[in-house]
Write a structure and sequence with these properties.
The protein is an alpha/beta fold. Helix content is about 35%, strand content about 25%. The longest helix is centred in the first third of the chain and has 25 residues, at about 60-85. Bound molecules: aspartic acid and magnesium ion. Magnesium ion binds near residues 8 and 40.
């Protein structure tokens, strides 16, 4: 098999950890696989480098930040190669540039445009393990770029896609994706498999496991991901295309998002174009609007409610202040959260949403807003009931172990 393995910061967090990763890589190689290993910087290293830059400047030049931060991953790639060589495994370390990773020109948040796999393939053909520094590439003008925080996952998925690898294993200190946050519901269990779309909807459950952008890329390139722990031999969670097996499971997981705020505009003039104006202005400020509800109008005015991340509330206030002539009053409510029930099985089963609404009603939890898609039901509720709602839903859909 051709395997791309990616090891995150905690997995390579110290020299002993790098040694243990080398052992894992060596074993996979001796089992007869071809291997590309993508590594993150040792844990804490990228933040430490950011701190160094901030010692000199609050707004360091982005080009120099890329020079600086890309070094963390190079260190790990070189050390892992040395450790492998010492174990008798032929290994070669590469920077993003040497691995042929070409990006657009955006420093600190570049997008991978293409990968020239010539060098990687040549080294693989000669029997070497190729160790690639994640999180970085080079742009058309020859400058080093980085891919945004957590970007090593993206490097791994992109390389797996370009090489048409059999699997992309993403190693962290968590052994997979759980049906909900185990800190909220200790009965949460590890999933064996999940589809890309479910994973994207359950992003908060995967936050410590893999970067969301890399899941989008994996979906686009049809790269099968396995999220595993480098601290155990547990099986991990497969993230792949939807299968019939997946549809048999009604609900895969329950996610809670506390970073939610609700904005309600009252007595909004009911005229064409007003929603367009408000939401265009919010979008221009990069404010992400999630759910939107507009009531039927009475007396030529209507109420318009929507949710945004709480972290964007201050900017939203400024934008909305500019619409003072078109509405009567505005309320902001930070005390809400979003609970989402996710599963591809919903496509072929009815009554999933009704069940969620009933169980919350039975627990006296008021649902303030609802939005649904083919594979999810999201509800805005009072933040104080968020964790109770998660536990209740987890149990009603038989997810408790
Ligand atoms: N070292 C980078 C970061 O901390 C990239 C990564 O680990 O994926 O964001
Ligand atoms: Mg990471």
């Amino acid at each position: 098999m051709l395997i791309v393995q990616k090891y995150g910061g905690t997995s390579v967090g110290g020299l002993d950890r790098i040694e243990s990763v080398a052992g894992r890589v060596a074993k996979a190689k001796r089992d007869g696989n071809s291997l590309v290993v993508v590594v993150s910087a040792m844990s804490g290293e990228t933040n430490k480098l950011v701190g160094y830059a901030q010692h000199f400047s609050k707004t360091p030049a982005k080009r120099e930040m890329d020079m600086l931060l890309s070094s963390g991953e190079r260190v790990t790639a070189a050390l892992l190669s040395i450790a492998l060589q010492e174990m008798g495994i032929d290994a070669v370390g590469m920077t993003g540039r040497q691995a042929g990773i070409l990006t657009d020109i955006n420093h600190t948040y570049a997008r991978i445009e293409s990968i020239d796999t010539t060098t990687i393939k040549r080294e693989l053909d000669s029997g070497k393990v190729v160790v690639v520094a994640g999180f970085q590439g080079i742009n058309t003008t020859g400058q080093v770029t980085t891919l945004g925080r957590g970007g090593s996952d993206l490097s791994a998925v992109a390389i797996a896609g370009a090489l048409d690898a059999d699997v992309c294993e993403i190693y962290s200190d968590v052994d997979g994706i759980y049906t909900t946050d185990p800190r909220i519901e200790p009965k949460a269990k590890k999933m064996d498999f999940i589809s890309y779309d479910e994973m994207l909807e359950l992003a908060s459950l995967g936050a410590k496991v893999l970067q969301n952008r890399s899941v989008e890329l994996a979906k686009k390139l049809s790269v099968k991901i396995v999220a595993k722990s480098s601290f155990s031999d547990a099986e991990g969670t497969v993230i792949s295309k939807e299968s019939e097996e997946m549809e048999e499971v009604l609900v895969s997981g329950i996610a809670l998002d506390k970073n939610q705020a609700r904005v309600t505009l009252r007595e909004v003039m009911d005229r064409p174009g007003i929603a367009a104006e408000i939401f265009t202005s919010l979008a221009d400020e990069q404010i992400n609007v999630d759910m939107i509800i507009q009531n039927a109008s009475t007396d030529g005015t209507t109420n318009l409610g929507f949710t945004i991340p709480s972290s964007e509330l201050e900017r939203a206030r400024e934008v909305i202040a500019n619409f003072s002539h078109d509405y009567g009053a505005v309320d902001y409510d930070e005390g809400v959260c979003k609970v989402s029930v996710v599963g591809v099985g919903m496509k072929s089963h009815s009554g999933v949403a009704a069940k969620a609404f009933s169980i919350l009603a039975k627990n006296n939890i008021n649902i303030e807003m609802i939005s649904t898609s083919e594979i999810k039901v999201s509800m805005i509720i009072d933040e104080k009931y968020g964790e109770l709602a998660v536990r209740t839903l987890h149990s009603v859909y038989d997810l408790d172990s």
